[in-house]
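Key idea: predict the complex, not the pieces.
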Amino acid sequence: MSVAVTVTVNGKTYQNEVEPRLLLVHYLRDVLGLTGTHVGCDTSQCGACTIIMNGAAVKSCTVLAVQADGADLETIEGLAKNGELHPIQKGFWEEHGLQCGFCTPGMIMTSVDLLKNNPAPSEEEIRRGIEGNLCRCTGYQNIVKAIQYAAKEMAG
Amino acid sequence: MYPAQFEYVAPESLDEAIKLLAESGGEAKILAGGHSLLPAMKLRLAQPGTIIDLRKVPGLSEIKVDGSGVTIGAMVTHAEVARSSEIQSALPALAEAAAVVGDLQVRNRGTIGGSLAHADPAGDPPAAFLALDGSIVAKGPNGERTIAGTDFFIDILTTALGEDEIVTAVTFPTLAAGTGTAYVKFDHPASHYALTGVAAAVKLDGSGNVESVKVGVTGVGPKAYRATAVEEALIGKGADAIADAASHAADGIDCNDDIHASAEYRAHLATVFTRRALQAAFTRANG
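Result:
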C-alpha cells in the first residue's frame, strides 16, 4: 500500500507515493536525491540525519515520510542563499568546525534550531543544545566555536 | 534499518481514531511523536499491523492553565512543555523534566501523552507526573475516563490504559500556594535516559515543617513510582530530616540491574537524587 505525500523541501514542493515504512531520511536521500542529509547511527542517537521540520530540528531517521505529509522541510542544501553561505556554515568554515565532515550537516541543522530559540547561547547552552549530535572525530571544541561565531554573525 | 510493513492511517477526528483502534482487534498502535515507537519498530521489537497516526486529530495540542488546574493535550511535545511560561510557573518540576528528555531533536518530536502511555521505566516525565499528582484522560469506545497517576503505571511499559483507549490529555491540580517543586536526574551520558530521576513537591507549614510532600522516582525500578516511605518520613518535619527521609527512596523496590548500573548503585542514586530533589523543592517552597 502506498500513501501520497506532499512536502516542501527548501522551498520546492514534491509529491510522491511512498510506502508507509519509508523513513524520512531515505525519502530525502533516495527519492529526492538530497544526499546532504546523512544516515549515521540510524537509531536516533547521533543526529547526523537532523533536518528542520516545520521550524524545529528533528532526526529524520526517526520520522516516517508519511508523517511529514504537508510539512515544510529544510535540509543542509537549502541553507546557502544565492551562493552565500549561511552564517552557521560560515562559522564551521572559519572556525574549522569539521574534520571528516560526516556529522556536519546534522550539527548545522541542529544549530539552526538552537540559535532560533536562543540567539545568544552560553558555551554550556551550546553544548547542551548539540548533545543529540555526535562527532566521531570528537571535534566539539571547534564546533562550539563555530556556533559562537554564527551567533555573533547573526546578531549583526 | 526500517520497520516491518504496516498499514498507515491518519484519521482526522478522535472518534475515528478510536473506531479504527477498536476495529484493529489489538493489532494497531497509536503514533504520536514516534520517538519510542519508531525505534522499537526499526529494531522489530514492535511490529504493529496498523499505525494510527494522531497528527491530524484536532484538539490534542493545547496547554490550558486556569483556576481548575492544568490540562496538557496528549500531543504537546516535550519542547513545548519545557518552553511554556505557563507550565514553568504552574508546574516547575514538569517543565524541568521535559527540558531534559533525550536531546533537543527528541524533545521536538516526543510528546507528553506518548511518553506517559509508553511508560518507559527510564523516562523523565513520569516522575514529575507522579510528584505533581497528575492524571491521565483517556477515551475509548465506552467514553472518557480519568485515571489517577498513582493507578496508571502497572509495570515496565505497561499502564492501566485499555487496549482500545487513547490518551487525550494529562491533567494536574493547581499547586497549593507556596509549594516548591523540582526535578533532578542522573542521566546516561549517551542516551540521556534517566538512570535515576526524582521529582519532589513540598508544601511547608507556618513553622517551616512539611505539611505535604510528594516524591516521584523514575529510572530505578520497573516503573516510575511514588516514594511513599520518603514522604511519610518527612511529614511534620523540617529540612534537617531530608537526608534520613531520602534514604528510604528505594525501599521495597526491585531495582533495575543492567550494564549501565547495578541494582545496588541505582538504589544509592535514588537516595542521593531524592535528597537533592527535596533540597531544591524546600528552597523553592514559600519562595
